[in-house]
Amino acid sequence: MRSGEEDLRYKKVRFAAWVGIVGNIILAIVKAIIGLMSNSKALIADAAHSASDVIGSVVVLIGVRAAKMPPDRDHPYGHGKAESVAAIIVSVLLFIVGFEIAVRAIQSFFEPVVVPKMMAIYAVLLSIIVKEAMFRYKHYLGKKYKSEALITDAWHHRSDVFSSLAALVGIGAALLGGYLNITWLVYGDAVASAFVAILIAKMAWSLGQQSIHNALDHVLHDEDTVEMKRAAQEVDGVMNIDEFYAREHGHYVIIDIKIAVHPYITVEEGHAIGKKVKERLLEDKQVQDVLVHINPYDLEK
Q1: What pLDDT score was predicted for residue 271?
Q2: Does residue 61 or residue 42 have the better pLDDT?
Q3: How far apart, in whole angstroms, are the C-alpha atoms of residue 109 and residue 264?
Q4: Which of 3, 112, 176, 239 has the greatest CB tally within 10 Å of its CB?
Q5: DSSP bridge partners of 254
């Protein structure tokens, strides 16, 4: 990825992270206050979830900034994997939040039940609208700029939408139970909190698995490298591609390629062919670096 594009990417992703930080602080405060005023455990749990999103967005901000750092002696391939590390941290934070909400939900079954007030419904509806907008915005930018950390953070927002939907159902059931004097419906608020906890933990596990997979030198599948291989094969002097690995290194790709050339050309001629292969592959905007190894072609094949 070229310098100008890298700067633009960094600015866009950084801005999205700040949108998440500010938005989640406001939502967490509003939901916590209304949750306490309306006696809604589900809304208070939802506020805790929004507060955890603040930490997640801060982690994304740090990860994106680290990923932008240029290669150095200790990190010759760059710092792109900082975003994968950030995504893993966000997944762990998400799982912890789910666990804490589950504990609170279980405890609430052994405490006196208090029917929440109607204002809790309005707070939840506001949360659903804002968090869905944040999800769509961050997910779009994450896909566009290949930011794994931003995509994971976007799903963190989407989990908040699910959390709020469950809270909406639970609060509504509790209100209805209180109005109709149906005892078991009053526990809807607590049941919703438990459901939200399971949903969040499942999402955290899934996102964490994907982030770890990408952090462990994941290579692009064959179907994703067809055009890259064709570009290298079309360079004059390349008789065969012996090996080809395109490693995802955060938001960019590093290619390791072994090409076979005529065994009786000079070292300088072989080097020139390898240089052309590298230049050709670097035309792909997602490719950050190419390591070319020259092999002699077996004329007896």
Answers
A1: 92
A2: 61
A3: 81
A4: 239
A5: 247, 289
264 has a pLDDT exceeding 60: yes
Residues 108, 240 within the same domain:
no
Are both 160 and 51 inside the same structural domain?
yes
Residue 301 domain-assigned (yes or no): no
H or E segment at 210? helix 188-215
Tell me what pLDDT residue 293 has: 92
Alpha-carbon distance of 55 to 60, in angstroms, equals 9
User: Do the beta carbons of residue 255 and residue 292 sit within 8 Å?
Assistant: no
Q: Say if residue 187 is in the same domain as residue 45.
A: yes
Q: Is the pLDDT of residue 101 over 80?
A: no
User: Concatenated DSSP letters for 213-232?
Assistant: HHHTT-B--GGGSHHHHHHH
4-9: list long-range contacts, CB under 8 Å, 24+ apart. 5/285, 6/68, 9/145, 9/147, 9/251
User: 216-252: string of b/e by CB count within 10 Å (b at 16+)?
Assistant: eeebbeeeebeebbeebeebebbbebeebebbbbbbb
Contact call for residues 89 and 52 (beta carbons, < 8 A): no
255 compared with 111, residue with greater pLDDT: 255
Tell me which residue range forms the domain holding 287: 222-296
For the four alpha carbons of 26, 32, 37 and 41, in that order, the dihedral sign comes to positive
| Number of Cβ atoms within 10 Å of the Cβ of 272 | 15
Each residue's pLDDT tens digit, 134-158: 889 888 888 887 777 778 778 877 8
* pLDDT score of 246: 85
Pairwise CA distance, residues 108 & 42, whole Å:
10
Dist CA 193 CA 167 (whole Å): 7
3-state secondary structure (DSSP) of residue 77? coil
- The answer to whether residues 291 and 179 belong to one domain is no
Residue 142 has which token pair?
Answer: 């994450």
Residues 181 and 229 in one domain: no
